[in-house]
Fold:
Amino acid sequence: AQELAFAAPGVREVINELTIDGDPGVQRYSQDLWITTQLRTRMIGDPDVASVNYNIETHRGVVHLIGLARSDAELERVTGIAASIPGVTQVVSHVLSITDPRRQRA
Structure:
């Protein structure tokens, strides 16, 4: 699947963090959903964060951030908010800064 994704026109990066594990169950799913909801709510309420620029995925307490930060300070703020939420065990950032050279067209 990763090779197919790379072969698609315009694809510059593929993030593959696929893990194979058992069904986490309804309780774990609910906890992850609650973490995501809390983070999204805090980001929306923070005037220093452009929350619309971020996708949030939570799996087994690990928060994955994907998006575009307006600055390094904004990204630090978002990762700090995420890490402060009860139940979060790790924050993984796939966020690019607006000045990141990887954003340039090839």
Q: What stands out?
A: Residues 18 and 76 are 25 Å apart (CA to CA). The radius of gyration is 15 Å. The beta strands are 54-59, 62-69, 90-97. The first strand starts at residue 54 and ends at 59.
